[in-house]
Amino acid sequence: MNLPNKLTISRFVLTIAFLGVMVSQVPYHETIALVFFIAGGISDFLDGYIARRDKLITNFGILMDPLADKIMVCSAFITFVGLHLMPAWMVVIIVARELAITGLRLLAVSKQVVLAAEGYGKHKTISQIVAIISILIGISYQQWGTFGACVFGFEIFGASWLTWFTRIAVWVAVTLTFVSGWLYLWRNRALYLNDM
Asked: What's the CATH code, domain 3-193?
């Protein structure tokens, strides 16, 4: 198994660790969850970068890398709904898009077609990761003492700058998720229209 595929698998492990810590009550669990999620985001960047640089692109990586991203991101967003950190309707849009694209990929595989990730999909994933990290910093920076208060706590228009940034990041992520999903389904419509 090559290094990019190992990094993809590590993202599944990091997702399990992230979820376990998020729902636990261990001290500083929000900060620990943030570290696990950032590590997952870094592994997402590295596996694609290394695979392209060293020409280690495999069918396993083409299929499993996006799946690992989806599981990591959807797990975080669903957890946020349970913790009342994000509206459920936004998460429904995100999860529905990810399930629809996964279904399309499975249909493509049944026809011996491999659908690689597109540019919009990568931007969508980056925007989702930024939104999730922003939310996690928002619930954990008070644990970081003076440093956290100085960097993330100063206010603009009655709320911390991070609060405003998080709101914008979440809206950008939801919008890109919807648009990228619609474009992906439209561009590959021949795959499912022929079966209807």
From this structure: 1.20.120
Round to whole Å and give the CA distance between 162 and 59.
Answer: 39
Buried/exposed code over 12-48 (b: 16+ C-beta within 10 A; e: otherwise): eebbebbbebbeeeeeebbbbbbbbbbbbbebbeebb
Cβ neighbours, 10 Å, residue 196: 5
Q: How far apart are CA 124 and CA 173, in angstroms?
A: 6
- CA nearest neighbour of 177 among 114, 104, 138, 126: 126
**Rounded distance between C-alpha atoms, residue 159 and residue 93, angstroms:** 27
Q: What is the pLDDT of residues 66-117, one digit of tens each?
A: 889 889 999 999 999 999 999 999 999 999 999 998 888 888 878 887 776 6
CA distance linking residue 137 with residue 38, whole number of Å: 11
What φ, ψ does residue 166 adopt, rounded to 5°?
A: -65, -45
